[in-house]
Amino acid sequence: MARAVDVLVVGAGFAGAVLAERLAEAHGLRCLVVDRRPHAGGLAHDTLDGNGVRVPDHGPHWFRTADAAVRGYLERFATWRPVPYRIVARCDGRDWPFPPNLATYERLVGRAATVEEFERWLERQRVPCAAPRNAEEWALAHLGREFFERFCRGYTRKQWGREPRELEPEVLARVPLRLDRDERAFREPFQALPEGGFARLFERLLLHPRIEVRLGAEWRAIRAAVRARHLVWTGAVDEYFDFRHGPLPYRSLRFERETVAAERFQAVEQVNYPGDEPWTRIVEPKHVTGPRPAGVTTIVREFPRARGPGDEAYYPVPAAEARAAAERYAADAVAERGVTFAGRLGTYRYLNMDRVTAESLALAERLGPRLRAEAGR
Ligand SMILES: Cc1cc2nc3c(=O)[nH]c(=O)nc-3n(C[C@H](O)[C@H](O)[C@H](O)COP(=O)(O)OP(=O)(O)OC[C@H]3O[C@@H](n4cnc5c(N)ncnc54)[C@H](O)[C@@H]3O)c2cc1C
């Protein structure tokens, strides 16, 4: 006998878990959440390693948000420890405040400077462009040549395996320029990590009498045994449609972990390497994730690469041909009855965790009443 539920949710990452929680709690729907991984949390999952350091499985996941509703929602499932994230860029034998700001300029000229001087210098560095068509044009117009060449060109090449001029402007539009000396990596008012890690947050999100979770469960393997009124798909949209328009391109990463017998390896949790090193960044999670074992630390080097067989799909490629292919799948997704596509893979977008949470909360508001009426509840 097939298992009958109101909603089958494929994927227990932020998108699937938040949707399931809302549909179950706010709309009284019975949800079955399946994930092929042995744990919930998707890419945000973290584990305590042999050193007792909590290390993210898929690269640093620095939660931050300016959305009070997202914050309020997630605070119901975890105690959040404030973390003002710090990033520096290491190149030319020095550490530079990053994202670029007045202190970065001061390091460049080797003395204190005023905002007015910094602005005048920036104007001389900038290459005006009213409508940037690619990441290089955008960066030259906003960050100026010095910061672009020093911090962005090499990093972008390594990250994407392409020249900045072959990528869409949004790639470097993520790098802010600040006129003050604010050393925080991000400006969002809420910057925090859940106590006990994301692993515990997801345990609590999914702990509900109307939610059943099956981990290590592949959708194709279980679908015949489940009768659901609606499917929420947070897996890859091309995979759902059996790659009918070809596979969507992704950039992947290889992580190299190292144990270091020292209290600290580097000054801050994330150091970016825009230079010739084969890695893009070194992350030392102990600075922020807690607990903090004495005398030992773990570092993780990140090596970007094209996605090969068996590699994780990390970053959608921000280039025109990938966008065009994704639009064909997006049209198929709209036409697919009884299925809602959500999350980073279901919509082929790079999305931060707070954005995925906000979109899932909004989606549940739209879907919930209709599905509830259909279920006769
Ligand atoms: C390297 C990296 C670093 C990042 N750092 C940050 C950061 O610092 N801050 C931030 O806010 N965001 C960050 N993000 C983004 C963050 O990872 C996403 O916002 C978040 O993972 C999106 O959740 P999701 O549920 O959409 O996707 P996922 O977390 O990928 O969840 C989808 C789930 O679906 C499951 N699934 C897929 N297909 C199937 C199937 N057929 N059957 C069963 N299960 C299936 C997968 O196993 C997966 O667990 C980062 C992303 C990357 C790639």
- The helix count comes to 13
Q: Which small compounds were modeled alongside the protein?
A: flavin-adenine dinucleotide
CATH homologous superfamily (4th level) name of the domain at 3-40 and 206-249 and 317-374? NAD(P)-binding Rossmann-like Domain
Could you list the spans in which at least 5 consecutive residues all have pLDDT below 50? none
The chain-level mean pLDDT equals: 97
Q: Order of helices and strands, N to C?
A: EHEEEEHEEEHHHHHEHEHEHEEEEEHEHH
The first-to-last residue Cα distance is: 23 Å
* CATH architectural label of the domain at 3-40 and 206-249 and 317-374: 3-Layer(aba) Sandwich
**Shape designation:** globular
> Roughly how much helix do the residues carry, as a percent range?
25-40%
* C-alpha-based Rg, rounded: 22 Å
CATH class of the domain at 3-40 and 206-249 and 317-374: Alpha Beta
Most strands sheet: 7 strands, mixed
Give me the secondary-structure category: alpha/beta
Give the amount of beta strand, in percent: 15-25%
Q: Give the strand line-up of the largest sheet.
A: 8-7-13-14-15-12-16
Number of E-state strands = 17
